[in-house]
Amino acid sequence: MSLKPLFLAAGVAVSLVASAFSAEKPNIVFILADDLGYAELGCYGQKKIRTPRIDSIAAEGMRFTRNYSGNAVCAPSRCVLMTGKHPGHAEVRSNRSMKALGEPEGQHPIAAEEITIAELLAEEGYVSGAFGKWGLGNVWSTGNPLKQGFDRFFGFNCQSHAHSYYTDYLWSDNDKISLGNNPPVPGHASLPKGADPSDPKSYDIFKGEDYAPDRINQEVLNFIRTHKDEPFFCYYPTIIPHVALHVPDEELEPYLAQKWNDPPFTREGGYGYTPHFTPRAAYAAMITRMDTYVGRVLDLLDELGLAENTIVVFTSDNGTTHLKDEVDYDFFHSVDNLRGLKGDLYEGGVRVPLVVRWPGKVEAGSVSDFVTGFEDWMPTLLDLVGAKTGAPESIDGISIAPTLLGKEQPERDFLYREFPSYGGQQAVWLGERWKGIRRDLMPRGKKKPEEIAVKTELYDLQADPAESNDLAAKHPEVVEQIEKLMKSERVPSEIFPIPVLDQAQGAE
Question: Does residue 183 have a cis bond before it (omega within 30 degrees)?
């Protein structure tokens, strides 16, 4: 497969690790959870939800404590991961449905000229497959994963479609395949009029027969078996645990046995997904189901003799959902003591789990406080596989291969995020200590950008990870550094504008 030459960097990458490895390139399995909170895995201190197989990745590899997703919601986070560009340069900066433009499904697509991880790995002889939720363009668009370096795709290309786990169809490459749910279960619905919310049978209409994540997991296993004799990149963006609360009854049983106080989610008015009689048990069961899928992948790598030569990465696209009635993040202590949830650039919205296993290369049971973000995976993976060609010069990520391989690595200078939704936000992490954040950049009722008062909050994350004490007034020199980066690290976007920032930059 040929690359888009306009954006391809010239020269040969200097591998940090090539001399230590054989000519056999490692396989890559990159698993991306959907809306999984920082503390919702056992290896991050979770007490109620069982995740033994994901925890084993941490036990056999490295666990990161300061890992940041690409953004605070699905599509822009995935864009950062795929392209290596932070949100000030990335094409997709928020969720944007294409239905308003007449498309039947899908989000704003990444452009044809964008270079993805899969395209760069193809140049190194890798076959690539994506399985789960794509969210970066439907099959008719330039964002179709088969046009962005992937040889195989199976799952949902549209985020809204992925709200139902008992849907009527999935995409297999460019073809729809039917699932055995007749009728399909909607992702958003209410109890029928007159239904008794205290009767568990009232919720049976939200149960299906053909569970989409089962199908997706099977295709992941098929892909690994098919390509066991060549280097592969298996990108597995599972839809779990994003609501709706859909999970097979047999998965619920261990959690129902806990006898939690678990009042029904009935969706009585307002926005929400489908009701569930025991929402706490359902949410925990969904995460454990995901853990089972991860275990099946790990077991297959063992069976095929591939475990020693496979880099396994597990992380999440953003923090826990903010829909309290459906996901009781206080009950599960989902983000530990961090501030914020999905949709926030506070820590709870973007600081997410990251565990990496590569037997014999990544030290078992190791922990890293290195500040890393989704944009780092493009250069990191190229470095770890000993790629001949480097990442495009236009990317923002840095290689964390030294950290993974137990070598010294200086702290990164900064990490940048912006998010035009949820009121409009911007954030910069300066080194390991400082974080500046701006909120309410597009508050309701404000008709003109000049009416918005832009204020930068400052937090010392080493002393105050909960972001409870704003130190901006005490450290104006740090605020000045951060505000310079907030200005220099963003290119305005016509499709995803933040008018108060765009206007200020345009005036210069």
Answer: yes
CB neighbourhood size of 251 (10 A): 18
Domain boundary among 374, 404, 434: 404
pLDDT above 90 covers a percentage of the chain that reads: 89
Question: How far apart are the two ends of the chain, measured CA to CA in Å?
Answer: 42
Do 92 and 496 touch, CB atoms closer than 8 A? yes
* Length of the chain as a residue count: 508
Q: In angstroms, what CA-CA distances link 14 with 248, 380, 386?
A: 48, 12, 8
Domain co-membership, 422 together with 398 = no
Q: Per residue in 33-63, pLDDT tens?
A: 999 999 999 999 999 999 999 999 999 999 9
pLDDT (average), residues 245-267: 97
Domain extent, residue 225, equals 5-404
Q: How many domains does the chain have?
A: 2
In this predicted structure, the answer to whether residue 11 has a pLDDT above a threshold of 80 is: no
3-state secondary structure of 457: strand
Q: Is 316 helix (H, G, I), strand (E, B) or coil?
A: strand
Same domain, 192 and 134: yes
Please check whether residues 378 and 464 belong to one and the same domain. no
Residue 203 maps to which CATH number? 3.40.720.10
Q: How far is CA 289 from the centre of its chain?
A: 18
Inter-CA distances, 27 with 230, 231, 319, 396, Å: 8, 5, 28, 24
Beta strands (DSSP E) in 1-75 are 27-33, 62-64, 67-68
Place of tokens 């944007």: 96
Task: Using pLDDT thresholds of 50, 70 and 90, give the confidence band for residue 272.
Answer: confident
In this structure, are 352 and 228 located in the same domain?
yes
DSSP E strands in 215-361: the ranges are 232-236, 310-316, 354-357
**Ramachandran angles phi, psi of 427, nearest 5°:** -145, 150
DSSP three-state, residue 128 = strand
The domain boundary, picked from 358, 382, 404, lies at 404
Same domain, 295 and 344: yes
**Both 470 and 493 in a single domain?**
yes
CA 143 vs CA 4, 110, 117, 150, 380: distances in Å: 14, 5, 14, 11, 23
